[in-house]
Amino acid sequence: MGLVVQKYGGSSVADAEGIKRVAKRIVEAKKNGHQVVAVVSAMGDTTDELIDLAEQVSPMPAGRELDMLLTAGERISMALLAMAIKNLGHSAQSFTGSQAGVITDSVHNKARIIDVTPGRIRTSVDEGNIAIVAGFQGVSQDSKDITTLGRGGSDTTAVALAAALDAEVCEIYTDVDGVFTADPRVVKKAKKIDWISFEDMLELAASGSKVLLHRCVEYARRYNIPIHVRSSFSGLRGTWVSSEPIDQGDEHVEQAIISGVAHDTSEAKVTVVGVPDKPGEAAAIFRAISDAEINIDMIVQNVSAASTGLTDISFTLPKSEGRKAIDALEKNKGGIGFDSLRYDDQIGKISLVGAGMKTNPGVTADFFKALSDAGVNIELISTSEIRISVVTRADDVNEAVRAVHSAFGLDSDSDEAVVYGGTGR
């Protein structure tokens, strides 16, 4: 039995009873012969409540101080969980992200991990302790300030520690029984996936699936760390995410043609109207966006009007970055030479993901027919070898997801998927 890293989300440790339930699960793994490192998120909605409190005090809180505030949530969880484990007769030690050796860059509120030096964690577990680590946080290599990794960063903390400690597996415990073919809150007949490749999981995560953070899956793929997504509310086997199919008892799990349908309503669309159709214009637009440190998703350029020599360029980005993008483009309007900007935050994205798509003709046609039959109008289209994404009206997203899910035979004939908590993390 080797070392396992377990991560518990906010819904799993939302209250005292949840913390005690998690403590029993961790102790059970310890009794089974494993060394255990547990990574915890803040309790329930603590992070949101702290953000609300900060905004009541200051409309634009300083990044450094906001990080100092937000990391308190995970410190509360780790200390209480260590107490609960000790109450069960086992030794446990809690560690902040910096004490655990999570080294990051200096970007507050969305820092990236650049190194993990888990000497104290290794010493603790070798001495027979269960190590409890506060997720979502680290320490800047340059300034030595406390940093946070962005929302969902506890997943990344767990995988990074698993890689640094050469763990057998990283178990991500959440409030659903694994990764499903669609969000079970939207599609009640969604199926649980037994195994999914890193590549398909990356596409699902990037397309809006909230069970695993995109950065977490990318880190796991880079260091080939198997992830087991499970529910902390049941004892059921979950979903394995790894580079190759795995054996589960006598059952060999194979890759499905279609892995699932993901959706995302957190994006907005910006249209740059009246762009001169000549070399360098698109570069100028996206340089302005890049300089503002904004990540974009889908891009579409219309055909140039012959009479005017002008075209429109549309792209999607997180709603939270919308105002910043508009300001950056307006600031560079003279150099780019466009006529006007349009902003639309009432959109949604639906994505069909599956590695088998590229060798199965007709997938694209079936996808668009399902949307057509559901009366869903398409505004933007983007594809890769294993993904088709479209942008529609936000009001049409749920119906579109259900239609596509049924059209590809993904609906389950068995019991409906169970959502034990309320957040999906």
TrEMBL record:
Residues 270-346, 352-425 form the ACT domain. The keyword Transcription regulation does not apply. Gene3D superfamilies: Acetylglutamate kinase-like, VC0802-like. It catalyses: L-aspartate + ATP = 4-phospho-L-aspartate + ADP. Keywords: Amino-acid biosynthesis, ATP-binding, Diaminopimelate biosynthesis, Kinase, Lysine biosynthesis, Nucleotide-binding, Transferase. It comes from the Bacteria. Substrate binds at T47, E74. PROSITE patterns: ACT, ASPARTOKINASE. The keyword Hydrolase does not apply. One of its GO terms (biological process) is homoserine biosynthetic process. ATP binds at K7, Y8, G9, G10, T174, D175, R185, K210, V211. One of its GO terms (cellular component) is cytosol. It is an enzyme of class 2 (transferase). One of its GO terms (molecular function) is ATP binding. InterPro entries: AceGlu_kinase-like_sf (IPR036393), ACT-like_dom_sf (IPR045865), ACT_Aspartokinase (IPR054352), ACT_dom (IPR002912), AKii-LysC-BS (IPR041740), Asp/Glu/Uridylate_kinase (IPR001048), Asp_kin_monofn (IPR005260), Asp_kinase (IPR001341). Pathway: Amino-acid biosynthesis; L-threonine biosynthesis; L-threonine from L-aspartate: step 1/5; Amino-acid biosynthesis; L-lysine biosynthesis via DAP pathway; (S)-tetrahydrodipicolinate from L-aspartate: step 1/4; Amino-acid biosynthesis; L-methionine biosynthesis via de novo pathway; L-homoserine from L-aspartate: step 1/3. Its EC number is 2.7.2.4. Belongs to the aspartokinase family. Catalyzes the phosphorylation of the beta-carboxyl group of aspartic acid with ATP to yield 4-phospho-L-aspartate, which is involved in the branched biosynthetic pathway leading to the biosynthesis of amino acids lysine, threonine, isoleucine and methionine. This is Aspartokinase. It comes from Streptomyces zinciresistens K42.
